[in-house]
Amino acid sequence: MITDETYADDINNKIFNSLADVFQQAQETYAGHRKHVAVLKKIQSKATAQGYSDAFNYWFNKLVTSVLPLKKSEIIGDRIVKLIAAFVASLDKENELISNKRKNEELDDNLSEKEKITTKFIDGFIRHILRGVESKDKNVRFRVMQLLVVIMDNIGEIDVNLYNLLMWSLKKRIYDKEPIVRIQAVFCLTKLQSDDEDYDQDMDEESGETKATDTLMHLIQNDPSAEVRRATMLNIINNENTRAHILERARDINPINRRLVYSRVLKLMGKRCFTDLNPRILDQLMEWGLEDREEPVRKACQRLMANHWVNLFNGDLIELLENLDVVNSKSAVTMMESLFSLKPEILSQIKLTEEIWNKLTVEFVFLFRCFFIYSLENNLIEDVDGSFPEASRLANYLNVYISKRFLEENEDLSSLDKTHLEFIIEQLLITAHRYDYSDEIGRRSMLTVIRNMLNITDLSDSLIKSGHEVLKVLSINEKDFISMAIEIINDIRDDDIENQEQEETEERAKKAKSKDQSSKNGDDIGGNDYSNDDVDNNPITSFHSAVENLVNGNEPVNEDALSNIQPEREARPQAILLCLTRACYMLELVTENVSGNILITSLIDTLITPAVRNSESTIRELGVKCLGLCCLLDLQLSIGSMYILGMCISKGNASLKYIALQVIVDIFSVHGTAVVDGEGKVDSISIHKIFYKVLKNDEHKDCQVIAAEGLCKLYLADIFTDDDLFEALILSYFSPVNSANEALVQAFAFCVPVYCFSHKSHQQRMCRIACDMFLRLCILWDGLQNSEDPEVDKEKMMKPNMIFQQLVFWTDPRKIVNQREENYQSEVSQLKFLLEILKAITQIENRAIKRMVLTNLNTFYITSHHGTTVLEELMMHLEDILENEQIDTISRNSLEKFENTVVEAVETARKNSPVGSSETSMTSDELTTEQYSQILESSQIVEKEVDFEKENESDILETNNLENDKETNAENDPIPQLESTRKRDRSAMETSDDIINIIPTKELSGKNVSFAISSDSNNESLSENGYNSYNEWNSDIDVNMED
């Protein structure tokens, strides 16, 4: 008899077997998934008809649970996930059809039975798999998030409670330690963004928060995984709120992310790049892309412009340039060069007509300028000759636009029109700078136009600079260029003085006229006329009498008259600024020594020196800049100006400090140390102090940057070699007060590795300061962490482990460029840094820092080529730490592992080195003979001055025999065991010590003693005073005895 319970079990088994069979077949291939979905729907419908929908849901969830532990690489898991996605999508599609049918037939809004079953299944399935979101198994967490992604991608609506539960789970998974889980969480969050937008419309304006979108914006900026940031960037919605975060990835540290900004994000935006983005931001993005260090990023940016953007405007370059805002763009020139190189066929389509030249726009003139420069640089002479006019006609065109902007009285010109005209003039000047002036008529025509233009006082700085560049090209030689430029400067100054005199004359005339007018209104007209006649005649009478007295020699010169002479009139500040600006651009183009140039000397005396002494800051700054440019051309002027430049840095404002620092760095770069340390010169220590104070003063961040960059350049060129200043320079990199100075940190991040890896001597300097600097930084970091001040940011300083790793990296001899293997293998500068660290390990009180140092010793470069002397000393210090220092187990294990590495290197070094060979640089036969002779000489002195008794003589003989035995054993066994040396006879040590005490060392020269010691360290044969070597050898091995 079949009971209800047996029947239910039978139905359950059938459902389970049917589902298991579908899952088994679906994991083999994707091909039959459509059929498997139909089978699943049929099983669900039958189970529902018989009242076993819960059993179907249970066994479905059960089978899916068995898939969750599969790894990401398992294709079986992906196939099952695809099957589930197709099944859920099919159910949701049926629900949508039922819902639409109900709306069309205007039926009741209540859900049908089918919709209820589907909703219950999806709700239960999501809640079931969410139970695995906190699993310890990363594969389970990954599969759960993967399933959520495909489900959210294939369903329309979900319950509010389920939505909140889902958001809570996703916000926890975005901080998962596995990037693959976080990526799936990002994909799932992106499916909820549209829901967020609808949800926000009903929220209070003050709260105004988004859930998924805000979370994604946080991830795109802060997630450490490049893959997670990439997934977020490509899936987050692109609107006004998120666009800044998306485009910020153009500066991502990962090159793939930077490339995708141009190949995906900007490309998908289409013309919205020009309508939705600020032109300045778009120009900045293109500048970053075209100047990126990675070739794929640069190519992606070039293809975006040359292919996609040009096609958007149907190949119309003028329309493209109009949207790029070429007047204010910094990258437009590079963009056009890339366009011409990628699509050279465009060059043949550019045609210049007379009508275009007479009605130039900013887009046309910019296109012609880029076309002209590109053609010249690529030797496309035919295109230049066929498209551009001769020099005289170009001068006429330039003169027309200069007159239209500056000479004609066009009151109806707006500020935008003036800006455009100045841009057109500038582009024509840039073109004229590279023009061919073999035609003398064309050269003279252009020279006249340029000289007249530079006399205009309303020119912008860019036009002044371009005008002087063209003027130099047109000049016969540099002396002619200087003469014309200074003549223009003098004309501007003289014109200003004449204008002042003319204004004063007009002012006097006005006053006299007003006085005459008032006198006519008086009562005593005759008396007034008489008095006025006397005033008018007095100067003439005085003049005639003065001439007669001077000719006859009757009277001396009147001193009161001399004191009343008016001082020489000076130009007004605005005119001085115009002159200094032109002088600055002129001096930037001068290359020859100007020590004998009278014009430059006169300019310095009459314009630059008074400007440096001027009280107005703008004039003084320009004066210092011009003085610096002159100093680059004359060594003696540089020597005489160092003091005043130092005073500008010490006493001046921030901008004056900045300019003076630039000048000093440039002077040292050009003249080297010839400007300091000599009679009548500033001493180098004062200059070092100036740089030290600037680096220490964090109030002027720009000055810190220019000082750091300048010092790095000077040290890289070996102009500066002081270790103390170099240590201060590197300390400013790690200093917590400078952590917010991003420009300074960026400069150091580039300059310091370049310096250390450029030459062996540079790396040796870093090794010399590394230990002391590390200890000081550790003390600073420890004090910062123990500070009780709540305002102190304890995270702003780099941790000691990162500092130590950077120092080890900078001192790695394998990183030096252009070094052969045999050269860096024997370099011991990093080992000396390591030895100093080991010697100072007892000074480190912080246990965490000490543990960090001991566990990172394996990062040092150790080879047998370093020689036995250094390696044995290193091994001695390691043994001392292991025996005498209280260290934890982790540090001890790491130290012992490193010690084994050193022991292996020592054994290899002893095997490779021949017995009795010297490890020092003195390897010649002559030098070795000198060592032996000096050792013998010292032994003879001892024999003459000391009368040994027979007992002592026998002791000496025994000691020598013992030493010779040890030497013989060393020759037979080149790898002596260090542990056996610890058990040597203490009486032998005491005997050797007594003998050394007997030796009258006052008669021995330091040279003889040093050679006696070095001969022992070089494993040479023993001399007659070999007991010294024996004692020295024993003291090197046994640290405890020496202590």
Explained architecture:
Residues 514-523 have a biased composition (Basic and acidic residues). The protein contains 51 helices and no strands. By secondary structure, the protein is mainly α. Among the domains are: 4-158, no CATH class; 238-325, no CATH class; 350-474; 927-1042, no CATH class. The protein is globular, with a radius of gyration of 44 Å.
Short descriptors:
disordered C terminus, mainly alpha, 1043 residues, 51 helices
Distance between the termini: 99 Å
Rg over alpha carbons: 44 Å
Strand percent estimate: under 5%
What is the molecular shape?
A: globular
Largest sheet: none
Structural class by sheet pairing and helices: mainly alpha
What does this entry show, briefly?
The chain is mostly helical and about 1050 residues long. The termini are far apart.
Explain the layout of strands and helices.
Elements: H1 4-26, H2 33-49, H3 53-65, H4 75-104, H5 113-130, H6 138-152, H7 160-173, H8 179-191, H9 193-201, H10 212-222, H11 226-235, H12 243-247, H13 255-269, H14 272-275, H15 279-290, H16 295-312, H17 317-324, H18 332-342, H19 354-358, H20 362-377, H21 381-387, H22 391-407, H23 415-433, H24 440-454, H25 461-474, H26 478-520, H27 525-552, H28 559-563, H29 573-589, H30 598-612, H31 617-631, H32 635-651, H33 654-671, H34 684-696, H35 701-716, H36 723-734, H37 742-756, H38 760-785, H39 800-810, H40 821-825, H41 829-839, H42 847-855, H43 868-884, H44 889-912, H45 925-945, H46 950-972, H47 978-981, H48 986-998, H49 1006-1017, H50 1026-1037, H51 1039-1042
Helix pairs in contact: 1-2, 1-3, 2-3, 2-4, 3-5, 4-5, 4-6, 6-8, 7-8, 8-11, 10-11, 11-13, 13-16, 16-18, 18-20, 20-23, 22-23, 22-24, 23-25, 24-25, 25-29, 26-29, 29-31, 30-31, 31-32, 31-33, 32-33, 33-35, 34-35, 34-36, 35-37, 36-38, 38-39, 38-41, 41-43, 42-44, 43-44, 45-49, 46-48, 48-50, ...
